[in-house]
Amino acid sequence: MSEFFTPDVPVFVGASVAVLCWFVAALLWVTAPSSTVLGGLTLAFVGLGGSFLALGLLVGGVVWVRDS
Question: Quick one: DSSP state of residue 68?
C-alpha cells in the first residue's frame, strides 16, 4: 500500500481536480460574465478548486512526513 500511495498521488489528484474546477469556472465566466448567478457559480468553482489543491497538498505532506 505504501509503495503505491506515495506523496505525489494525492498531490496529483488534488491538482487535477483543481484544474478541472478552474476550467469549469473559466467556461462559466466566458459564457455570461455579467450574470449574477453564473458569477456566484464561478466563484464557487474557483474556491472548490483551491480547496481540492490544498487538500491534496495537505494529504501529500502528511504521507511524506509519515514515510520519512
Answer: -
**Domain layout of the chain by residue ranges:** 8-67
**Main-chain phi, psi angles of 3, to 5 degrees:** -70, -35
Contact by Cβ (8 Å): 17, 30 = no
Taking the whole predicted model, whether its pTM rises above 0.85 is answered as no
Radius of gyration of the chain (CA): 15
User: Residues with Cβ < 8 Å from 17, sequence gap 6 or more?
Assistant: 49, 52, 56
Structure confidence at residue 19 (pLDDT): 95
Distance CA 4, CA 24 (A): 30
> Is the pLDDT confidence value at 59 over 60?
yes
